[in-house]
Amino acid sequence: MASKTAAICRGISRRSSGFGVRSMSSWWRNVEPAPKDPILGVTEAFLADPSPNKVNVGVGAYRDDNGKPVVLECVREAERRIIGNQNMEYLPMGGSVKMVEETLKLAYGENSDLIKEKRIAAVQALSGTGACRLFADFQKRFRPDSQIYIPVPTWANHHNIWRDAQVPQRTFHYYHPVSKGLDFASLMDDIKNAPNGSFFLLHACAHNPTGVDPTEEQWREISYQFKVKDHFAFFDMAYQGFASGDPERDAKSIRIFLEDGHLIGCAQSYAKNMGLYGQRVGCLSVLCEDEKQAVAVKSQLQQIARPMYSNPPSHGALIISTILSDPDLKNLWLKEVKVMADRIIGMRTALQENLERLGSSLSWEHITNQIGMFCYSGLTPEQVDRLTNEFHIYLTRNGRISMAGVTTGNVGYLANAIHEVTKSA
Predict the structure, then answer these.
(1) Which residues form a coiled coil (predicted)?
(2) CA separation (Å) from 182 to 155, 163, 213, 222, 286?
(3) Any catalytic annotation for residue 272?
(4) For 5, 36, 130, 259, which has the most beta carbons within 10 A of its beta carbon?
């Protein structure tokens, strides 16, 4: 009897095992490999290249003139002050109150009445990407019939963010390929032709990937037309301070909209301007009609964050609040961020001068007319391929050059290579 029972059990076990194997093997059978990220793919190819002359101008992170990553001294000093003094408790869902307060001052103004009136709903976010995603989900939840207008071109991840939040996307003209500047007339036409009350994604400064920003007067015209059409402006400000070296100047677009009485949204990040890439610390703010509305909006932003990640990380937020709340450390940061911005601006000048010195028949004025980390070079995909294959220079195929990867040691080599591949253009 015992042996018969054991045999039955073995049979059931084998059948169950076989069913389990078949079932488990089919769960993910239809999953295909995701396409490689174009920017990360550039870095992978660069690292695999054994050439001693290789140059990476695809990386979207600051490098010093030796091509090395930088940790700001103000960050090091803040870390020295807080080491051993912080506990490991959760932050509130809205993040560090102190960090958010200091961050709002950067965007809205040190003595902003909007802050004093508590009209801004703001939460700590997972850098600029997380801030954009929180807002996209907020938009979908509370304006489900809306869509988002995104500039052509834009940072590629913008499309992913609003797509995954299931917000329909439209585009508006921005970059003019011939002038390598702003297509202002077409941009204004798109603003005028969009349905009243549309959502627009705007880069506050140092537009990524083109480095092309509207002038102050153009921003005023854009703001006026937004007012006429009752559009909502959502600003992604990833480069405040890093663009011009002056955080106040880099926030001018936002201040113009505030002066004109707009209710806006804003994503801020400390990846570029404090070099806190890996800390993933940023802020999402939404300007509201009054304090009561701001309380309601903040509660909903926190509700959206809860199933995503629950609470933001604390260390980076503590670094930022330590720096921005201490006058000496803040002044040190302002000096250091200007050094970074000035190095980028200097490399733009050097690259343009080197190309002109080589006798290039093309105009390279756009290199210095553009601003921020990226230069939209105007190089074709085929010319980019030649740069990589013949000169071991790595960048994305849209011709975007990260000026952070340009140094006094390689700018001449880079200019010569660009000159060679554009001779017949």
Answers:
(1) none
(2) 16, 26, 7, 13, 27
(3) yes
(4) 130
Report the relative pairing of strands 282-287 and 374-376 from DSSP bridges.
unpaired
DSSP secondary structure code for residue 1 in this structure: -
Query: Of the candidates 305, 397, 415, 307, which has an alpha carbon nearest to the alpha carbon of residue 360?
Result: 415
Q: What is the pTM of this model?
A: 0.92
Query: Where along the chain do the CATH 3.90.1150.10 domains lie?
Result: 38-70+340-422
Q: Where are the domain boundaries for CATH 3.40.640.10 in the chain?
A: 91-325
Counted residue by residue, the chain has a size of: 425
Whole-number Å distance between alpha carbons of 134 and 126: 9
Say what the pLDDT of residue 388 is: 97
Q: Which residue has the tokens 């003139």?
A: 65
Domain 91-325 has CATH 3.40.640.10: yes
The upper half-sphere exposure of residue 46, i.e. CA atoms within 13 Å in the direction of its Cβ, equals 19
Could you tell me if 411 and 349 are in contact, meaning their C-beta atoms sit under 8 angstroms apart? no
Which residue in the list 137, 140, 155, 364 is annotated as catalytic? 155
CA distance 80 to 151: 42
Catalytic member of 213, 236, 298, 364: 236
The C-alpha atoms of residue 31 and residue 14 are separated, in whole angstroms, by 28
118 noted as active-site residue = no
DSSP type of residue 177: T
Confidence bin at 5 (pLDDT 50/70/90): low
- Choose the catalytic residue: 140, 180, 252, 272: 272
**pLDDT of 356 over the 60 cut:** yes
CATH homologous superfamily for the domain 38-70+340-422: Aspartate Aminotransferase, domain 1 (3.90.1150.10)
What's the pLDDT tens digit per position in 154-163?
999 999 999 9
Q: What residues have CB less than 8 Å from 192, skipping those under 6 apart? A: 225, 228, 229
Query: In 3-state terms, what secondary structure has residue 399?
Result: coil
3-class state of residue 379 by DSSP: coil
Query: What's the pLDDT at 16?
Result: 47
Residue 245 makes CB contacts below 8 A (sequence gap 6+) with: 337, 338, 340, 341, 342, 345
Contact 399/364 with Cβ under 8 angstroms? no
pLDDT at 84: 83
Q: What is the pLDDT of residues 377-413, one digit of tens each?
A: 999 999 999 999 999 999 999 999 999 999 999 999 9
Decide if 200 contacts 234 (C-beta within 8 A): yes
With beta carbons less than 8 A apart as the criterion, state whether 316 and 280 touch.
Answer: yes
Residue-wise burial string across 176-185, b where 16 or more C-beta atoms lie within 10 A, e elsewhere? beeebbbbbe
